[in-house]
Amino acid sequence: xxxIDEAALQxxxxxxxxxxxxxxxxxxYRRAAExxxxxxxxxxxxxxxxxxxxxxxxxxKFAKARQNxxxxxxxxxxxxxxxxxDGDGSLIPPHLANPSDAAEQAASSRQHASPGDVEKVRYxxxxxxxxxxxxxxxxxxxxxGPILEELxxxxxxxxxxxxxxxVLVPGAGLGRLxxxxxxxxxxxxxxxxxxxxxxxxxxxLNCTAEAEQYTLYPWxxxxxxxxxxxxxxxxxxxxxxxxxxxxxxxxxxxxxxGDFLEVYGTPAMAAAFDCVVxxxxxxxxxNVVQYLEVISHCLKKGGAWVNLGPLLYHWAxxxxxxxxxxxxxxxxxxxxxxxxxxxxxxxxIPAPYIANTRSMYQTIYNACFWTMIKExxxxxxxxxxxxxxxxxxxxxxxxxxxxxxxxxxPPREPASQHQHQHQAPEQLAEQRGSGA
Length: 436
Prior knowledge:
It is built from 15 helices and ten strands. The chain is α/β, with parallel strands linked by helices.
């Protein structure tokens, strides 16, 4: 028992250290962004006067960029304020209370956030635009639209008095797809591992008071491939819709924090869902076969797996000792069939990811879109799970709702219910977006 308690305390400490590093990155956003603008100014000052004369608008651009950075920092400060508290009343796990203190501890060992963590904050801002701005509605329609239409088709013959279908969305990011699934009247549960995403999604889902409450400038950080300064420095209003205006009713949306394999590979999650939706997710695995096993495990027999995305394996360019199993689409089909799935529908769909529509550089994936039905149980899964639990026991964890909202403005009712599982510290993964 003492060993278990010590392991749990160690896990909590590691989790708090990871949170501190990420909160430090959010707090360091303005300093790092203004340093980049200072680089632009420094290079401009090195030009001869007659070249400066030909580029008279650049000083005004630099000043506007600084103003936009300040506005972005206001959004970040509002986000972080939602998580301050002592954890009393189960509003936030006690070991994660007062994340600013954890950030100060992280700062004691490093003066500033790492460049990789700073870049992730900028990536989050782009994702906020992707999921929660009117400008990116077209991208959401390309990626989320086919999934939502497929869910309608799958459950169109459900009896009026039948239980609501339960849909799991791992890799839920900032929660928009989960909201849209709950908007169909289904029980949607999102799962996310990244603290960058978890903090931001909790804020957007639970702590915003109205549509278009904040303005962000997600594209300002790069001068490359801009058609105009106005395009680069344009803002987007978020959220385009308040989450409670999307979700069809109370109790339909929940978010669970933790590693997908650890949370949903347990016996308690066996056959827990009628459908699993994976959108730009399966290639985030170190071992994609494990993902398929757990998807099968938590699906009911006869349940559906709906997938859309590419195979940009995130760990393919990682450290030599970092596990990364990269297989073809053909291999994934074959493995899925061996695990008890039947492919009933498949097509290719052009799908962007955090695309800046006014950039000269665009990344469009020829994403695979499929529906598979779980016809039988995975013949190996029961034995494998039994072996795991004999060797390692149950995974430690606890559940808690999201942190409290900031005092101003008064929030609406939360759109989601949050659950929490212990997480290991994050590692950097390759980002999908063009960054342009």
